[in-house]
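worker-3 :: picked Lipoprotein
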Amino acid sequence: MNISKPSAVVVASVAIAGCADTPIADADYGSSVNQMLQAQTLDPIAASNPPELAPQITDGARLENALDVYRKDVAKGNTEVKQPVIFEVGRR
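worker-3 :: tokens ->
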């Protein structure tokens, strides 16, 4: 295969241009996602200051009632709970 010098220069130029960076497309990357998040946030101040991820303190009767309601929807095949669920109520 015999390639002339001008043809080789054109092929090399096209190959190099294909690897070029596109800063115009990268400058706006992700702005649509940020714009949608901002539009879907009800209270931006609350979103920027999330509450602590500590467990909330409540009474044991309410937790037991929630657990009973949750277990009523379980299939009737296996009605036993292998490990007991323990709730700690009170201050740390």
